[in-house]
Amino acid sequence: MEKNKDWNLMEEADWHFRKLVRRFVKERDKISVEGVSLPGLLILKTIERNGEQRLGDLAEVLDFTSGAVTALCDKLESAGFAVRQRSRTDRRSIVLDITIQGREMLLRNQEVGTCMIDVLFGTFSQEELIQQIHFFKRVHESLEGFSERIHQQYRNAAEGASGKGGSAAPRRNRDFISY
């Protein structure tokens, strides 16, 4: 690790990033339209756009857990907005498809996504949005293999500590750590 990094700034950035993610998920999950949560609307919109979907594929595309997708699909089905059925192309697979009522509900509420994006990003200038997109992409790229890199660093640190009597882990500013 580089010694000239400003750990206080990086830890503050980490703290704000984690706070932002938690707050976004908490607020997003409060949004409900006609009894359907925003993640449920995303599922319906994905099916409307791409056709029937296997639940595992929905989880992958929308970055939800399989348990969350199953629970959301149960709610969509009980509300009459979606239906599980055998795939038309692979009879062994069960897929979720949108019903006529689901399509009508999406049509009635088509501005929800636009409103959400405007509330989150509408006050930023074009230059600020370009910068945000750039930084979001960089953070996203940093997450590729994130857990494995962390595990590897601490395996290396533990191996070094067992032979040298110390840890290679960086010193932290506890003001921003809340793991």
Automatic annotation (TrEMBL):
This is Transcriptional regulator. InterPro entries: HTH_MarR-typ (IPR000835), MarR/SlyA-like (IPR039422), WH-like_DNA-bd_sf (IPR036388), WH_DNA-bd_sf (IPR036390). PANTHER family: HTH-TYPE TRANSCRIPTIONAL REPRESSOR YETL, TRANSCRIPTIONAL REGULATOR, MARR FAMILY. GO terms for biological process: response to stress. The keyword DNA-binding applies. SUPFAM superfamilies: Winged helix' DNA-binding domain. Residues 157-179 are annotated as: Disordered. Coiled coil: none annotated. PROSITE patterns: HTH_MARR_2 (PS50995). The keyword DNA-binding applies. Keywords: DNA-binding. Signal peptide: none annotated. Pfam families: MarR. Residues 1-141 form the HTH marR-type domain. GO terms for molecular function: DNA binding; DNA-binding transcription factor activity. It comes from Paenibacillus ihbetae.
